[in-house]
Design goal:
13 strands, transcription, LysR_subst-bd, alpha/beta, single chain, D-Maltodextrin-Binding Protein, domain 2, Arc Repressor Mutant, subunit A, transcription regulation, sequence-specific DNA binding, 5-stranded mixed beta sheet, about 20% strand, 3 domains, 12 helices, about 300 residues
């Protein structure tokens, strides 16, 4: 059998890494059409279908998954071997990380500059969405997920166990009715999460009892938006402590009461087992665990 040309194999591997033809083309510095042609030529040479063409994008077929799993480690070894000799940084070191919009906006994005400072050769592409990225299918290298930690076929590392806290702008608290006990919060406008759950959960844990009044107020689809509304003085907000930490430290928000409530889910760093061993993933994992440890010590 005549061996497939290396550029075709390289194009296919990049599609597997990036989860799409367009991103693979950007990583290789070529057009999406060129990548598609290379992968199609590889399919014809091997006599198998490697990509399933969907209405919006592509995904690896079962045969494509097997070939990608066999080829990717070899290409990464080549990249690591050539890295000391220079080249264009960022072309082969794009690391895709996915997480929730709230965590991305309030905690992760403000800290990514610290990672870039110590790993300038690794470019991070941060994806934020409420849906779960398909790590098995290569949509992302790493995910920071909010859940129970049960992710079949994936490795997970526990990062945070957040608690609900009540926050407000200093002006709102100074000029509004005094808040000395949980029930006093009802004298202020309550800013609600998208499911109207957090205030009721916090009130129950604080001994304030159940009441329909805990579910009233403006609703925000994302906790980062809810925090912005609280900073603007629109009312009191119940948010996860890790989301509000930077705003509390800067004085843009203040804790209203000492009462907290545990949340049912934690934050986990999640990846495929084979990805955890890759250099860029390991670098991000080690940096993130260090950042989490430093954050916990400061808070």
């Amino acid at each position: 059998m005549i061996q497939p040309p290396l550029p075709a194999l390289r194009a296919f591997v990049e599609v597997g890494r990036r989860g799409g033809v367009k991103d693979a083309a950007a990583a290789l510095g070529v057009t999406p059409g060129a990548v598609s042609q290379q992968v199609r030529a590889l399919e014809l040479r091997l006599g198998v279908v490697l990509l399933e063409r969907l209405h919006r994008g592509v995904r690896l077929s079962a045969e494509g998954e097997r070939l990608f799993a066999a080829l990717d480690p070899g290409f990464r070894q080549i990249e690591d071997a050539l890295r000391p000799y220079g080249g264009r940084p960022g072309r082969t070191n794009l690391l895709t990380v996915t997480t929730t919009p709230s965590f991305a906006a309030t905690w992760l994005a403000p800290r990514l500059g610290a990672f870039a400072a110590v790993h300038p050769d690794i470019e991070v592409r941060l994806l934020a969405g409420v849906g779960l990225a398909d790590l098995h299918g290569g949509e992302a290298d790493l995910a920071i997920r909010h859940g129970g930690g049960d992710y079949p076929g994936l490795v997970s590392l526990r990062l945070f166990d957040p608690h609900l806290v009540v926050v407000a702008s200093p002006r709102r608290l100074a000029e509004g009715p005094p808040v000395r006990r949980p029930a006093d919060c009802l004298a202020h406008p309550l800013l609600q999460d998208r499911n109207r759950r957090d205030w009721s959960q916090w009130a129950e844990a604080s001994g304030a009892g159940a009441s329909p009044r805990w579910r009233g107020g403006s609703i925000f689809a994302d906790d980062a938006l809810l925090i912005r509304a609280a900073i603007a003085g629109q009312g009191l907000a119940v948010v996860r402590d890790i989301y509000a930490a930077d705003e509390l430290a800067a004085g843009r928000l203040v804790r209203v009461l000492a009462n907290t409530a545990p949340t049912a889910d934690a934050y986990f760093l999640v990846a495929r087992p084979d990805r955890m061993a890759q250099r860029s993933v390991k670098a991000f994992r080690d940096w993130l665990l260090g950042a989490v440890e430093a954050f916990a010590a400061a808070n």
